[in-house]
């Protein structure tokens, strides 16, 4: 099992992942393909955005891929926090495809993602989840998350916030 960066050869797998996701808002949003005319346009835009381009802070995104080259999950690492990310979004977002949940893959994706954070020189990361997202809270706690105060988003959603010290 490994993390790989999106590139042109993952087009088919990436599309299958999104199809399985259905109508739900894709997490992380940086790996949504909506609005692109082609996969190469998505890759070109991702390469531009991930360096930071005004709206986007620098970030890295990865697929969690198994030995059969199937994408099982996705993870996105925001290298810095702005006010919104500090309060609500955090440094890291992740998901696992619906048919592969509750098998430990998100816990593994975050563990591997934290290694990337260490490589980036990050000393601590903030990870948030909705108050009712028990699975995500467990993923964070499994990886050493220390809970801080919660915040409330503009739509009233309460976000639990956790720091992981690297
Ligand atoms: C949240 C999510 C990433 C969890 O992925 P996963 O691969 O199922 O997580 P894991 O298998 O590593 O599970 C970690 C723990 O949470 C538990 N868990 C997972 N989903 C759960 C759920 N829906 N309800 C209760 N517990 C749950 C697991 O049993 C496991 O418990 P354990 O540590 O005691 O063994 C996945 O459900 C998902 O992609 N959800 C939509 C996107 C999302 O919410 N992302 C997080 C944004 S903060």
UniProtKB/TrEMBL annotation:
Record Gene3D superfamilies: 3.40.630.30
Segments forming domain N-acetyltransferase: 1-164
The organism's place on the tree of life at top rank: Bacteria
Leader peptide range in chain numbering: none
A Pfam family assignment: Acetyltransf_3
CDD domains: NAT_SF (cd04301)
GO molecular function annotations of the record: acyltransferase activity, transferring groups other than amino-acyl groups
InterPro entries xref list: Acyl_CoA_acyltransferase, GNAT_dom
PANTHER family: ACETYLTRANSFERASE
Designated name of the protein: Acetyltransferase
Native source organism of the sequence: Ornithinibacillus halotolerans
């Amino acid at each position: 099992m490994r993390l790989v960066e999106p590139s042109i050869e993952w087009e088919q797998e990436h599309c299958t992942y999104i199809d399985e996701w259905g109508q739900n808002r894709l997490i992380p949003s940086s790996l949504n393909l909506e609005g692109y005319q082609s996969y190469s346009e998505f890759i070109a835009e991702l390469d531009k955005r991930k360096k930071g381009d005004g709206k986007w802070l620098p970030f890295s995104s990865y697929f969690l891929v198994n030995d059969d080259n199937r994408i099982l999950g996705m993870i996105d690492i925001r290298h810095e926090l702005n006010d919104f990310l500090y309060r609500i979004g955090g440094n890291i977002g992740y998901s696992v495809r619906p048919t592969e949940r509750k098998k430990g893959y998100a816990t593994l994706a975050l563990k591997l993602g934290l290694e990337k954070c260490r490589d980036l020189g990050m000393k601590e990361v903030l990870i948030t989840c909705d108050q009712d997202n028990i699975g995500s809270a467990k993923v964070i706690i499994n990886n050493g998350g220390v809970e801080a105060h919660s915040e409330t988003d503009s739509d009233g959603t309460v976000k639990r916030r956790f720091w992981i010290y690297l």
